[in-house]
Amino acid sequence: MTFFVYAANGIAGDGHVHRFQGTTDLDAEHFHRITGYTGPAIPLESGAHFHWIQAEAEEEPFQFREGYYKTVLTIPRHSHRFAGPTGTGIGYFPEGW
Predict the structure, then answer these.
(1) Most exposed among 10, 40, 41, 54, judged by the fewest C-beta atoms under 10 Å?
(2) Which of 60, 64, 63 is nearest to 79 (CA)?
(3) What phi, psi does 37 have (nearest 5°)?
(4) Do residues 12 and 48 make contact, with C-beta atoms less than 8 angstroms apart?
(5) What angle do CA 1, 92, 18 make, to 5 degrees?
């Protein structure tokens, strides 16, 4: 999964959240878009923090063909659930984004 967590004003203990978006990895010739909000900030002893993400990918399967994103009509609509922690360096565009 590749996703980006947008910057937000906040500190480790204030309970702020971030918006995120991205895509699932290419699997079985398709991928899904993901969007949502993180859980509240979880402070670490170092003063940094992370967030927990738990969400479900959008149902529409896509392929990237001929320079465009196209809905895959031969694959039934379905979704994928995912969950996990963010890293501590959030709010920065990943290389190549």
Answers:
(1) 54
(2) 60
(3) -125, 145
(4) yes
(5) 75
Virtual torsion, Cα 26, 24, 97, 41, nearest 10 deg: -160
Specify the residue for token string 């967030």.
51
pLDDT, tens digit, for every residue of 51-79? 898 888 888 888 888 888 888 888 888 88
Question: What single-letter amino acid sits at 1?
Answer: M
Q: Give which of 9, 17, 6, 13 is closest to 40, Cα–Cα.
A: 17
**Residues in the chain with pLDDT values less than 70:** 88-97
How is residue 29 written in tokens?
Answer: 């010739």
